[in-house]
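Entry type: protein chain
Record version: 2
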Amino acid sequence: MQKKGESLGAFAFFVYLCPRRVKWLRDIMKKRLLFFLLIFSPLWALAQTVSQGEEIINSADYIWGQGYAETVKEADKEALANLMSKISVQVESDFVIDEREVNTAAGNDAQSTVSSVVRTYSQGTLKNTRSYVVSEGPPTAYVIRYIKRSELEKIFKDREENVLSYVYSARSAEKTGRIDAALRYYYWASCLLKSLQNPSQVKFSEDGIKYPLTMWIPEQIRTILSQIKVEVTKVEGQEISLLFTYKDKPVTSLDFHYWDGMNYSNIFSAKDGIMQVEMRPGAPTNKFNIQYEYEFKSQMRQDPELEQVMNIFNTVNYKEATVTVNSGNKSEQKQAQVVLQTAVSDMAVATHAVQVAKPKSFLKNVEQVVNAIKQKNYESVKDLFTDDGYEMFDKLVHYGNASLIGNPNLQFYQLGDRTICRSVPMKFAFKNNKRSFVEDVTFTFNKDEKIESVAFGLDKTARDDIFQRDTPWSEDVRMQLATFLENYKTAFALKRLDYIKSIFDDDAIIIVGHVTKHANKKGENQQYINNEMVKYTRLDKNTYLKNLERSFGSNEFINIRFTDNDIKKMGKGADTFGILIHQDYYSSSYGDTGYLFLMVDLNDMDAPVIKVRTWQPNRDSKWNGNFERDDPYYGLIYGGNFD
């Protein structure tokens, strides 16, 4: 029998005699090892995965749900639904639901309301849940979705933060006369408030006093509605000119419906206190009803969770939202007309700007244009415009059924070798849309005294932010900023894709969406964009323009309203500005409201260039949450995020 040592010795002698066999032997061993790993590694990995999954399931520290489906995505969705069901059971005893507020007509009942409310928390909101993929399949994917019990409270805390954000936005809007926004945000806050665990414990602090929101918000809505005053300034046939004031000042913006003799109208939007309505033939003009809008259901689509909550609870009806308007006698109308005319005159005023004496030729030309609009004889003034200017004018008068409001008080201002005429108030109505607007139209003359541009002016709040703010900006810069913003918003209304293309830098940062978690604002722009904690859609210029082109083609109208500017000069020595502005966007198929930030280079007066464009629907405390709540940049993306 051969001994072990002899065997090893023989093997060594064999290797010694055949060195070429060494490589062959090593190759064989590698292949066998690889075969072993291919066979047993998946089993080992699966065992490890199952073990970790069991650890989550068996731990008392977690609430978990599981899902099985053909794909990981579908399994994760099922796991989330399973998790939400378990969360409902977990928190049901902590919820305080007023059964009288539950919308039973929509199939809800008090018993199932907690489950319905918990389901309103979307996957995007549940930032502190995690997914664990046990198996990717095929044939079956298996996913566990889980959350630490200690983090469960954060889910509801985030929504409470959203409620308070709406309240602060409402407060800010009320101060600037944006009554539509104030009512909208207060009402939305009250809706979300009902979906919290204990609504009565949520309070708003002001001047050292804490107010329970369940009682305080409805009181604010009623107070605002009761302090809106509407007066008739003129009745001409079936057309009625109206003046809306809040605390004796023309409202910056207000949405309403009116009874036209047969039905309530679609939404009419008063601007700077002004609007005009038309009654049906034969309907009385001396007395009619108006309903102020406060729900803004169509705009809830930008916040799906809010929309879902709205379907669970009953709509709150405020009787103060419906008022009866009496036309009054001629003397009363005349008094109201004085206030209206002051509002019309204010549209033309730019305090810190180079005003020029009314040149007879310019004044005559604008008066001719006004008469052409009245008579709807637009071709008669074609020779007063440049080719591009008339194309814009033609689009503008056909933008809607254009009509004039009040008597324009024209003012002329210098901007380089151009002269800007401010402004002619006009109303625009559409056959198939759901809104009617008021816009004050500005005209820009070139050095040859031809009208080269027409634009929709900013409202009073936005104008004052530019022209009356105490800053070291020159008069030209102020006018340039206002003109840029007016041209920008008008380009969307008139669907001027070529103009929009010309003002965006080829490498512009264009972000559509909103922030869900705090992003690292240190470093270069690309670091910000790639941060996985940011939920966003970043578009290159071409994609952004293609999306706009589709939007332009599918909408009868688009209207943008700017309010609450906050403008900062960025850097030294150059005219580059960061413009943070509140934007209300309306189209025939969609509406939203949010915060727009533009970083624009205005060094070349004839060629403004947008370097950064971002948009987000709401303030998010995870963005610049260290700022005070009344700071305009609290919770928002702005230029500092791109340093």
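Comment: DSSP finds 16 helices and 25 strands in the chain.
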